[in-house]
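Hey L., structure's done. Input below.
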Amino acid sequence: MLRSLILLILSATLAVAQDTYTFSDQGVPRAYRAGPSRSVGKIVFYDRSALPAEERLQAMASADRAARLDKAARWLTEKILVREGHKSAKRQIAPVNEQSSPLAGWTLETYADLATAFKAVQWMSQQGWEFMPVFARQQARKQATNFSQPRKREVNDPLFPKQWHLFDASGGAEAGGINLGAAWDYVTGRGINVTIVDDGLEIAHGDLKDNAYPLDSGYHRNFNDGPEKDPSPLTAKESHGTSCGGIVAARGFNSKGLDGVAPEAKLMGIRLIAGPATDEAEGIAFGWQPTGTTVHVSSNSWGPTDDGIDGGRQGALAAAGMAKAATANRDGLGTVVVISAGNGRDKGDNSSFDGYSSSRFAIAVGAVNRAGKPSSYSEEGMNVAVSAFGGEFNAPDVVWTTNNSGAEANVLVRKNEASQAPMDYTDSFNGTSAAAPQVSGTVALLLERNPKLHYRDVKEILLSTARRAGLKDGDPFVKNGGDFLFSHSFGAGLVNVAKALEAADTWQSLGPLVEAASSQPTLDVAIPDGTGFSEPVKFDFGNSNLRVEHVEFTVTVEHPLRGDVGFILVSPSGMRSIAERRPNDDTANFTSFTFTSVRHWGEVSTGTWELRAADLTANGKAGAIKSASMNVYGTAR
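Output:
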């Protein structure tokens, strides 16, 4: 991976005797280093003249170092320019074609494939020949792609000035907005499909109808009462999904209402939570991709009850649906599943215990208020990836968006005496429910800009570009061993649209996913009552050598009051992932309960990981860890 200096060492799979080469660039010697490629079937060299000294390169932050390496990357092709004086020499490796080149005195040779060309490079270097591989390189677009500059496109929607969460400088003196910058001058979500999985979506709404697919498209679904293919809410109170849909993709530039983050993305409605939904229905909703179309983003502002008690488990079919979305949809690149982290902070809930938002196939989103603080309800967790604006409970610290149409729905909004919202809109929306759609809209913009991004690429782009300036009063940001900073409150920080788009422009896709596992199936590690931590359960990943993305650990714990118990996982670098206890949880035991952390993203898996349980409440109730296992997902280094 292009994330540390070790990437300049040649991959063992190439079996190269040297990694430093000198090629002749029209008679001028140029130094190159061979290195591994993140793209299957490619061989990369790095132009040393385009890189700083190794000490300086090593001292860079991971994102800066990766950018420099990307700019210096040169991809080997099947062609090599060779000085004509070498033509008559005896060859160990013969080309399949030779022809004159535009350069006088040089012959252009073509080899059967990359592997043969690479062997020819090795052999010519050993013979001291004067030659130059014909490299490919990623050139930069010359059009303006500084997305952080002021927007040029005029926005004519009358409620747009009230959408403080979108502004790059006016959304609060310290917190700012999600930094749209000049994004809409280049991308608006055109050609990107987003599902709104919720209690309904009013597809006939005046500010949604131009983006929502028509009813006869067959792209919507209703799992609750009413027609199967119509996601429209049946009552004025079922407005949650319509509000989420407006944050994602209210139609922009139409002189109506307001704007979604991706104001020209297409919407599909999945009516799921207006009534009880089966595990099968949840699985279908997550994996939704109707025949003949592609679902790029799945926006989910729902989940288990945020009461600090609910076990939070996903059913098997729901979990399978989410996995299918991420690994099979979009021709294998995956639907990007975005989900709310949860609103149960005041009830002692913690998103780490939520099996939906903790899935490694999803992006869990926390909420921030206008002052840059964690929203008073937003749950912390080791699974929280990024944050967006959820506000609080009263104007002006609430989010403007679409509401169900009509007088009855407007009356419900107007119960808030401070409301100034006109008919068909609301100025009273909040929660991680408001934050997640902002990330969904951001992802729609990213995928329009670079449709080749894998779901894991999208997550890393959001993590690596998130903004921390102005955020305060939450769990502190801590740098992990991979140079990523994380807070249990904010994740990697506030979603940063402009910087994410800039990263997407030149992004090199992450390599194939690799898994390493370690298990302790039979344990009896005491969890003392009220005295602190258990002894560590140790997992040896000595030979794994992965660049980490997600870490899962699964525990079985016997304890009569599991709300007393929290967990802490420590990586070899010392980075901690903490699942704080949930004091309201009065049930017993954890049985094969899985936690997932993003806080070790970019770290090296090699070494010993330690897991402890903690019981800090002295009440005469003790327990024990009976089994534990751990899985690391990432890419080979």
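Confidence is low (pLDDT under 50) at residues 1-17, 168-175. Residues 562 and 588 are 5 Å apart (CA to CA).

-- N.
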